[in-house]
Amino acid sequence: MSKRKVVVGMSGGVDSSVTAWLLKEQGYDVVGLFMKNWEDDDDSEYCSTRQDWIDVVSVADLIGIDVEAVNFAAEYKDRVFAEFLREYSAGRTPNPDVLCNAEIKFKAFLDHAMSLGAETIATGHYARVRQNHERDGRFELLKALDHTKDQSYFLHRLNQAQLSKTLFPLGEIPKTKVREIAAQIGLPNAKKKDSTGICFIGERPFRDFLNRYLPTRPGPMKTTDGKTVGEHIGLAFYTFGQRKGIGLGGSKDGSGEPWFAAGKDIPSNTLYVAQGHDHPWLLCHTLSAGNTSWVAGEPPADGFACGAKTRYRQADAACTFNAAAAGGSGEGLFELTFDAAQWAVTPGQSAVLYDGDVCLGGGIIERAMTGQPAELPPDQAPKQTRAQRRKQAHKPKQPQRASQDEPQTPRQKAALLGAR
What Gene3D superfamilies does this protein's entry cite (predicted)? Predict the structure, then answer.
């Protein structure tokens, strides 16, 4: 009886390496596949692609599997990076990892694996797949047992066809155990650090990278009441709730509370900042989302009570789903109304729904309804400094020119009074 063939996406990291080893131990015919998704530059200072490939080959030699490399850079640039730039140009903050999973790792990679004769693919993601025979045998995406490492948020756009051909061996294993296995079997990358940040940016400064592809320009930084308090370096470099880089300390009124990015006006290139973590502009009770994707192929029923994440590593927030409430402005829109206000909900990020451990899918946040008024505040004239006020006080007064109707001499005044 021939073994089931599985193609494992191998990145050079410890998670995908242990995934390949576990499947080989379970009797699968394992082939490793290394994906190169970016090639605009391979600056060794920031890009680790060469070393990652070396690590993949070393691991494959150790555990005894074949491995090959495939270039998906063209697909990545067209399906993921172009959308990344469009979202930033529109003033939103995208999450390219979500789109990369749906379009590259579980589409382009899956198609390539099938062309190699594989029955299934596997990755080192921390999530679980379950076939629910009580619901017509449909496949479900579940959180990893280790909730601290769960990555279902990034996988919520996977569909039935993709999940039916996917294995997540690490979904049942704590991260600490994965490290132990790597050390026990002597993997050369057992102590390699986990990758962080956006894959095509690597460790390079985000501002430098974005400026190469998306020209930005400085503009006014204003408070929520319209007062200009500084200048921003480009709207793309700020996301809702951002504190670092605002450049404003506590207020002179003694409150000392920090300032946060709280709004953007694209036409005027204005960044609005709010003082205080719980400022109304930062608190959202309702959001609308579009560009939806549902694991089961259909959305929940209106009025469904569920949990939702509006950013990775966030605890599920209790909310109510309603597709009809957001109707009229586009197809596939939905609204979430939260039981408690959510902080710094950011357009461009994903709103992902959960029923317990089951990930239902979600959509891209289009609007967060906060305390921000429908009309932006009018500009306020900046307050004069003490020196400016002193200079104004000592400035010689110019004689006022009398109007033609106003009497100038006592006689003229008396005549006017008599006339009245």
Answer: Adenine nucleotide alpha hydrolases-like domains, HUPs, Translation factors
